[in-house]
Design brief:
single chain, mainly alpha, two-stranded antiparallel sheet, 18 helices, globular
Length: about 450
């Protein structure tokens, strides 16, 4: 394999260009001799890395993550799931009991026992329970206080439709994503909870096309010293970022059923999908960077953005933007004429390159996955490299056939106050499916991980 050309610096050397060159020289040492035969996925080593953290505890350097205990457990449990492994009943119960110590008496979950409730650890705790929990006594799922959870959510809501991540804290679009996922999982969606939120999410899109963490609400001062929120001028705060962008885009898509039902009362707001797609595509590294993704313009590639950026393309495809994703195939249309040509991959990004980055540069020799060499493995990068690998291997899409099946099985409870929103929202989230025969696994089936739908 010929050595690829390094990134240009336009004959103007800066600290940034020197660091870029340094990383390219390191990554160049991980280029496979045969691009189609990368190193195999070291499944057993990665499982041992996760098991060691779960059973023996995390290394001392994780002390700084004391307020992120739900995340450490979620990253571990979801890592098992993507590798196709489930916990035994005893360890599941230990996980459930641990998670429930994080529930705050006033609603939500904190980052550890006795810590303040916060939207981000609430997401991690509830998602961890979705993996190991069960209905019934000591199962965790029924012990979540949904009424107080909803009250906690509403206490964080701001006039512009945004949410604080915790009391006396900041607004962050990642918190909205966490809130919406939990509200779906716990079946506590209401119009009051979602009012104004689509307009806020859309206002976080920057001139580049990606999303920042928040936007600046503008107010008009009145004679009585009160203020009125303006609908239009809400400039985004900060630059476009891969993590914020995934959370904003996923939130925007989860909000579509609400928008369709409340189009007359909600402010008109739009997301520029084409500008977003262009920005996402340009974040994929070139050949010398092994095709990994960076999280911001002019930054270094990082394995975690395999998911935060790579996971956005299926979301955009669900809105009709981009190609290379599945569709329902009618039995009568499966046979093609001899002269008919069906494009295999209409994708605008290279799934093969991303898999190559994760397998060649993302895997640590001792187990676990990482940002990039020579950095150590950690739980965060282990999960998001693995789910990024899943996004590159599998085609997931909104299936009309699955939606019709779910709709046919739907039974509405009597006197449910928000049944129309509830049904529409659940039909949407339950309609994701994986295209049969649509996997593209670099290096053979041994490298395959579980599809995420």
């Amino acid at each position: 394999m010929s050595h690829p050309r390094r990134s240009p610096d336009d004959h103007y050397v800066t600290d940034t260009s020197e660091l870029q060159l340094e990383i390219e020289l390191i990554l160049g040492k991980h280029l496979p001799t045969n691009p189609e035969s990368p190193p195999p996925l070291q499944r057993n080593q990665h499982l041992q890395f996760l098991v060691k953290n779960l059973v023996q505890g995390f290394p001392s350097r994780y002390i700084s993550q004391d307020a992120s205990q739900p995340w450490l457990l979620f990253w571990t449990l979801q890592g098992f799931s993507v590798l196709g492994v489930a916990l035994d009943p005893d360890n599941k119960q230990k996980a459930i009991d641990t998670i429930m110590t994080w529930q705050h008496p006033d609603g939500g979950f904190g980052g550890g026992p006795g810590q303040q409730a916060h939207l981000l650890p609430t997401y991690a705790a509830v998602c961890a329970l979705a993996i190991v929990g069960r209905p019934g006594p000591r199962g965790g799922w029924d012990q979540i206080d949904r009424e107080k959870m909803y009250e906690f959510f509403m206490s964080l809501k701001q006039p512009d439709g945004s949410f604080l991540v915790s009391h006396d804290a900041e607004v962050d679009v990642r918190g909205i994503y966490c809130l919406l996922v939990v509200a779906h999982l716990l079946d506590i969606l209401t119009p009051d909870l979602l009012e104004g939120t689509p307009a806020f999410v859309a206002s976080c899109q920057t001139y580049e096309g990606g999303f920042s963490c928040a936007s600046q609400p503008y107010f008009s001062a009145e004679a009585d010293e009160s203020t009125i929120l303006l609908d239009t001028i809400r400039p985004p705060l900060g630059e476009a970022h891969g993590g914020y962008t995934f959370c904003a885009l996923a939130s925007w898509i989860m909000l579509q059923p609400y928008l369709k039902l409340h189009a007359r009362t909600e402010p008109q707001s739009l997301v520029n999908y084409n500008k977003l797609m262009r920005w996402l595509v340009l974040l994929q590294g070139n050949e010398i960077e092994l095709g990994g993704f960076r999280g911001r313009t002019n930054k270094l590639v990082d394995g975690c953005y395999s998911w935060w950026v790579g996971g956005c393309f299926a979301l955009l495809a669900s809105q009709g933007i981009g190609g290379g994703y599945g569709r329902d195939v009618e039995p009568a249309s499966e046979a093609q004429d001899e002269g008919e040509w069906d494009d295999d991959d209409e994708s605008v990004w290279s799934k093969t390159w991303l898999q190559r980055y994760i397998l060649c540069a993302g895997q640590h020799p001792s187990g676990g996955l990482r940002d990039k060499p020579p950095k150590p493995a950690d739980s965060y990068h282990t999960l998001y490299c693995l789910v990024g690998l899943s996004a590159a291997q599998h085609n997931v899409y909104l299936s009309p056939a699955r939606r019709a099946h779910v709709a046919a099985q739907w039974r509405s409870p009597s006197r449910y106050a928000n049944e129309e929103l509830r049904k529409t929202s659940f039909l949407e989230v339950l309609s994701w499916a994986e295209e049969e025969g649509g996997s593209h696994v670099l290096g053979g089936s041994a490298n395959r991980v579980v599809g995420i739908t």
